[in-house]
Amino acid sequence: MSAASKQTGAQGGVPAGAREGADDSVLPFAAEGLDVRGRTVRLGPSIDLILSRHGYPPVVSRVLGEAAALTVLLGSALKFQGRFQLQTRSDGPVSMVVVDFDTPDRLRACATFDADKVAAAEAAGETGTGALLGHGHLALTIDQGAEMSRYQGIVAIEGGGFEDAAHTYFRQSEQIPTRVRLAVGEEISGAGEARHTAYRAGGLMVQFLPQGGEGAAAQSAGDEGDEVDDRWREAHLLVDTVEDHELIDSTVSSERLLYRLFHERGVRVFEAQGVREACRCDRSRILATLTRFDEDDRRAMVGDDGRIGVTCEFCSRHYDIDPAEIGLESGSQEGSTP
Q1: Beta pairing, strands 106-113 & 276-277
Q2: H helices within the chain, ranges in order?
Q3: 88, 169, 255, 335: which could join 97 in a potential S-S bond, CB 3.0 to 4.6 Å?
Q4: Under a CB-based contact definition with an 8 Å cutoff, are residues 23 and 42 in contact?
Q5: Hey, is 95 helix, strand or coil?
Q6: C-beta of residue 20 within 8 angstroms of C-beta of residue 193
Q7: What span, in angstroms and rounded, lies between the C-alpha atoms of 331 and 322?
Q8: The pTM is what?
């Protein structure tokens, strides 16, 4: 962790300089008296932009917002330039979620859903994240570029949400006792014609990492072993007191939340890291993708107006392509779909 840190102890209240409601940032911390490390994330304008541009139903926005918060919690811990991706495929009303985090700070996300199934789930009151995802799998992929091998971990989704999936992943793959909390909500400001609603998302991840107790030793001391270490029991119980609004309230900083949880043991926070909405799509990437299709497929993409239209699933940006740009005679409609 960064050497730039500040100590919060049992005396003196919230540390000077604590940022009130720091949006679009990740804050690493350590509660050394409990041998735990962790991170908090608060997403404001970035997640509101991602969700509002798609016009998803609110329950779908909540699912994607939780996935984005979890992805940033995990991806921001990477110490190299690359991409961390969370992707689900499942049989529920929300059949696919994709979130990309390009280190150190670029976030984009999108979801695929069945509108009729979502409406039926809402009518039945089955709007929890687990119910909307259904059964399937969640894949976590680390991509360090063409010169490095990709790593992928896969976790079954069995009617649970992203918190459950994260706990399963760390228990089975990393063998690190971990507790994750995620929340998404809408914040209303102003009144009348000035009334504005914006999405917010937040998350907290705490891991038990005792000195000399990494790996299996840490797991055996955690909540999956025969004996529960008192330090982890205490940290686990403290995290379970966190309410959703504390993770997304723009007037409550991450520092204040961490102080409330861990002030009796002392908590140290490190340098915060910014997060921003940023899509990787651009015209050159779109053209490179299209030219990989064979000529018949490219001709089938040409519309009645003699142009090819491509819309990015992540940022909804529309690209108007001249067929000549991908090796077809300009304006040709031969083989185009009606």
Answers
A1: parallel
A2: 45-52, 58-75, 115-123, 129-133, 162-169, 216-221, 230-239, 244-248, 254-262, 283-290, 295-300
A3: 88
A4: yes
A5: strand
A6: no
A7: 7
A8: 0.86
